[in-house]
């Protein structure tokens, strides 16, 4: 076993082990012949394998995984120790990590790719058989690309071809963060990467974060390819040859076309003519692709979308006939009518993994044209094509609050004064596989970019989840909703989750909710969140009668979350939404103010009448100090399984009797499973009293209790634990209680007492807490007073 071979374990590391027993000496000798040891790992006894595993490098530890599993051994402690020794950080949500092997290798891949980890820094990473990117890539399900996209360049390099193929199978989530403008060669690498991972891969989610000044060309490129749109031509050449998968698809399509042509008796002259036309269209398309990749030297084109309110033509796909000439509004510029061509209808992209979709041979359908705008955004030397009469950002083309069947704010000539020169030909476009989740966080979207996104959304039928967070939409949200309305009319629309959050709200939250549901009745989850009212109160549409009066069709809504920018909660505005949402199971109301004492009672009546399936109800930062009766009514509701009163000042002006009534009500409610009371200043005494919920005479089914941010000290937690242990003993050791959350309490004031309380609590239930510095938090609080 001690055969001479390349030593993977440095002598210094072996000396540090200092084996003192025959077993340890044997294990050290075996570790010098890793390949032979792993090959014999199967027959090795479990106790011998247990001692051998910690001595293996990452390469051989990963290969010994199956042998360890067959021997009934877990490698999780070894991978966790590797994480601690190599990464030297505590991962977020570490308590929820189920596989440390995957977590380590996924993070290891990212760190090596971005050059922040040196494999020679630890002997367990330094193995002559181990290719860091190649061997860790099968474990990567999410990847983040940053800054100048150096990672994209590295992954598309010729020597990493196998790595990219592995990622095409394993990667599900692709993230972009802190992106910067880049040159043409890097954009080409990004195109190759997105084409392989999205169009011919398994990526189902694209997320972009923190891009204060987004590069228009780069943003459009990522969005359009995420939507499944690009051309498989010379632009997608991979190291001198076309994408193999695209080439296979084109070959199959050509064969089928030839077969159909022969069956129809097409003569050689017609086929030759068609071939010449296709060649010309292909060359034109490739020129446009290259111009997109090269980036603009002058300001980008205004998209031919969303005419201002002075334009009389409606924003509708059918407002201009197919084949009509399209010109810039500046007639003096070089502008010629677009020749009449027969367009082909494209199949919509779908989210499931498959090869490039063939262009169908039916007539072109207006409702599926989302491509025209994409290639006008970043054309080089486009100053002569700018539409001098472009609308200002935020202006709308239609009263989007109505239920009209107008088209989205799309790049069609009917939406603007015929300014669509340079449009990419649908005849030469391909539609590929697209992602099902799109998330944009902290990326300012101009009016032009909102119109671009609206066009993409209008036929992005594979899209299931859309998250727009802090994008500065303001009035441009109308354009986004216009595209979503067009999408909802598509029979294959899959959009089920929409989350919109921003600093300023353009209109009252309830009006926005009603508009969204009227446009997207098939939504299952809707989240609307705003921090502040519009800073220009004069521009705020307080009395939008069209939106207030719009009828909401019966919806499929199951989850509704509203964060009000300190707006009053008027139940009369919420009533139509609840009436249309018979399937609602979860309702969350955040930062709302109650205009009168009767408002909460009215809300409870409406909830009882209109939402028979409601299971979860949450109030956050809503002052309920004067609504004790309504709080008790909610706690005794037999339909609710989870209730949250977060930072609701429950005990601000209450008496001790109120707490007793809460405890007795919960004790009698056998349907309530979770009670969350963070930020209500329970303190030690009230926490100890809550232990009586599990007394011997209780019929409660409560299994989760959240008392985070409640000024709880170690001695109070210990008393709660002792009282809880007493109730458990009286009930024969059986209580439903399984989870306790203790974030941000004052447990650091007496570490020894806190540790004893936590140790005893963990024998009863699962405890989730943190190492919160209460003194620093208090200092921060004082500093901002």
UniProtKB/TrEMBL annotation:
GO terms for cellular component: cytoplasm; nucleus. Keywords: Leucine-rich repeat, Phosphoprotein, Repeat, Ubl conjugation pathway. InterPro entries: Leu_rpt_41, LRR_dom_sf. Residues 254-351, 386-407 are annotated as: Disordered. This is Leucine-rich repeat-containing protein 41. The keyword Protein transport does not apply. Residues 338-351 have a biased composition (Basic residues).
């Amino acid at each position: 076993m001690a055969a001479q071979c390349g030593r993977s374990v440095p002598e210094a590391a072996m000396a540090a082990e200092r084996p003192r027993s025959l077993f340890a000496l044997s294990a050290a000798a075996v570790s010098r012949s890793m390949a032979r040891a792993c090959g014999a790992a199967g027959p090795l006894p479990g106790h011998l394998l247990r001692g051998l595993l910690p001595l293996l490098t990452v390469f051989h530890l990963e290969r010994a995984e199956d042998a360890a599993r067959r021997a009934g051994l877990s490698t999780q402690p070894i991978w966790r120790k590797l994480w601690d020794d190599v990464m030297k950080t505590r991962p977020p949500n570490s308590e929820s990590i189920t596989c440390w092997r995957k977590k380590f290798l996924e993070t290891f891949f990212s760190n090596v790719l971005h050059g922040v980890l040196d494999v020679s820094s630890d002997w367990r990473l330094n193995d002559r058989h181990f290719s860091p990117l190649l061997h860790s890539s099968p474990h990567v399900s999410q990847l983040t690309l940053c800054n100048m996209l150096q990672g994209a360049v590295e992954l598309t390099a010729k020597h990493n071809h196998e790595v990219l193929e592995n990622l095409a199978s394993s990667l599900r989530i692709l993230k972009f963060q802190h992106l910067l403008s880049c040159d043409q060669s890097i954009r080409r690498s990004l195109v190759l990467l997105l084409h392989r991972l999205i169009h011919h891969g398994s990526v189902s989610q694209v997320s972009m974060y923190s891009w204060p000044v987004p590069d228009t060309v780069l943003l459009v490129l990522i969005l359009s390819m995420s939507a499944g749109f690009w051309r498989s031509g010379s632009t997608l050449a991979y190291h001198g040859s076309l994408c193999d998968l695209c080439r296979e698809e084109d070959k199959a399509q050509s064969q089928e076309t030839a077969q159909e042509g022969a069956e129809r008796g097409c003569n050689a002259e017609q086929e030759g003519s068609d071939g010449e036309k296709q060649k010309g269209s292909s060359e034109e398309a490739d020129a446009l692709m290259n111009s997109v990749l090269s980036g603009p030297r002058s300001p980008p084109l205004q998209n031919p979308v969303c005419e201002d309110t002075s334009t009389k033509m409606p924003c509708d796909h059918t407002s201009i006939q197919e084949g009509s000439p399209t010109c810039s509004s500046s007639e003096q510029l070089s502008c010629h009518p677009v020749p009449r061509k027969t367009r082909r209808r494209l199949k919509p992209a779908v989210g499931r993994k498959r090869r490039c979709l063939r262009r169908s041979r039916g007539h072109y359908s207006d409702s599926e044209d989302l491509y025209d705008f994409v290639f006008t955004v970043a054309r080089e030397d486009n100053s002569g094509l700018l539409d001098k009469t472009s609308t200002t950002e935020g202006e709308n083309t239609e009263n989007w609050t109505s239920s009209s069947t107008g088209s989205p704010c799309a790049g069609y000539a009917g939406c603007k004064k015929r300014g669509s020169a340079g449009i990419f030909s649908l005849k030469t476009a391909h539609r590929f596989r697209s992602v099902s989740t799109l998330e944009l966080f902290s990326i300012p979207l101009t009016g032009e970019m909102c119109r671009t996104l609206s066009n993409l959304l209008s036929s992005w039928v594979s899209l299931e989840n859309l998250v727009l967070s802090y994008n500065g939409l303001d009035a441009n949200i109308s354009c986004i909703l216009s595209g979503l309305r067009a999408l909802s009319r598509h029979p294959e629309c899959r959009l089920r989750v929409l989350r919109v959050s921003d600093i300023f709200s353009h209109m009252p939250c309830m009006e926005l909710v009603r508009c969204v549901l009227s446009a997207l009745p098939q939504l299952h989850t809707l989240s609307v969140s705003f921090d502040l009212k519009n800073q220009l109160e004069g521009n705020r549409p307080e009395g939008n009668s069209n939106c207030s009066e719009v009828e909401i069709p019966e919806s499929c809504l199951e989850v509704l979350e509203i964060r009000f920018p300190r707006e009053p909660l008027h139940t009369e505005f919420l009533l139509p939404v609840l009436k249309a949402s018979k399937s609602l199971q979860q309702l969350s109301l955040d930062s709302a103010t109650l205009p009168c004492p009767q408002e909460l009672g009215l809300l409870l009546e409406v909830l009882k009448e209109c939402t028979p399936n409601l299971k979860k109800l949450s109030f956050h930062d809503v002052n309920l100090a004067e609504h004790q009766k309504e709080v008790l009514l909610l706690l005794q509701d037999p339909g609710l399984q989870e209730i949250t009163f977060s930072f609701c000042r429950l005990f601000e002006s209450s008496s001790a009797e109120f707490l007793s009534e809460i405890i007795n009500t919960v004790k009698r409610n056998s349907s309530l499973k979770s009670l969350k009371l963070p930020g209500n200043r329970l303190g030690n005494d009230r926490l100890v009293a809550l232990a009586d919920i599990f007394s011997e005479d209780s019929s409660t089914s409560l299994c989760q209790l959240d008392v985070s941010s409640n000024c709880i000290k170690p001695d109070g937690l210990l008393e709660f634990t002792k009282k809880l242990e007493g109730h458990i003993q009286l009930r024969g050791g059986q209580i439903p209680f399984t989870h306790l959350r203790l974030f941000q309490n004052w447990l650091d004031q007496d570490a020894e007492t806190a540790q004893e309380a936590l140790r005893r609590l963990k024998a009863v239930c699962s405890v989730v807490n943190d190492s919160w510095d209460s003194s620093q938090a208090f200092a921060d609080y004082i500093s901002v007073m």
